[in-house]
Specification:
Elements lengths: L1 H17 L6 H30 L2 H5 L1 H31 L1 H7 L2 H25 L4 E2 L8 E2 L3 H39 L4 H32 L8 H17 L4
Antiparallel strand pairs: 1-2
Helix pairs in contact: 1-2, 1-9, 2-4, 2-6, 4-5, 4-6, 4-7, 7-8, 8-9
Protein name: G-protein coupled receptors family 1 profile domain-containing protein
InterPro entries: 7TM_GPCR_serpentine_rcpt_Srx, GPCR_Rhodpsn_7TM
Keywords: Membrane, Signal, Transmembrane, Transmembrane helix
Length: about 250
Amino acid sequence: MALVGLSCNLCVVVFLRSIPSLNNSFGSLTLSQAIVDSVHQFLLAFYLAPTIYFQPRELYEVSHHFGFATLLAYQICCFSHVCISVNRFIAVSAPLTYSKIFSKSNTRIIIACSWIFAIAILTYELQIVDCWFYLPGTSWIYTFKDNPACNRVKWYGDFALNCTSVVIVAILDVASIARLHCFNVKHKIDAASAQRRSRQIILVYQASLQGILFITELITYFWLSGFASNKWEAYALTTISWVLVNGMDGY
């Protein structure tokens, strides 16, 4: 499953690099997201899957390193979604200043800041604080180390932070949809503009669906998995949902 997600996201990377019309701010932000999604799926496909299938002790002993890298890719992806939503909102609400706000140099700075911010947060939470995100024993599920400091990281540094990101994305996307609707009602537009607006609306709806998937994954991973009656249910509610949410970004 992770291989499918990896393939889809790599196709997005190739597509974005090969289409001149996407050599813009939106394309750059989406490319950044597709790259970290690819890294996320790669780590799940080529580390997690072999580890839980063959269960070698050596791979379990280094699982906290791979857990850090996988969670980092996920965190950057969440921040990338926020940046893309801001990009869309500015495009539909302030089109005259959009090119200035999201110039090439500013876009590079935004991407760099989102990566640096995620790296700083995860480095503090999983390297400085007494906390690991790892595979315990012969487990099939990444989990946080069980101690008070790590519980705070789990609920505030991961769950609450990413829920906040999803809420911000949802608010911006709803505002973008409302803005597009108001514009279409108030102004008569030609066929080309109508087609362009239609594509923008589709992108916003797609982003909204992605937000729903992310919040669903957070709920299943952190809450519903606690009600699982066996390891297969727990695996589906955690690892599988985590694979799906980032893999679906490539569609």
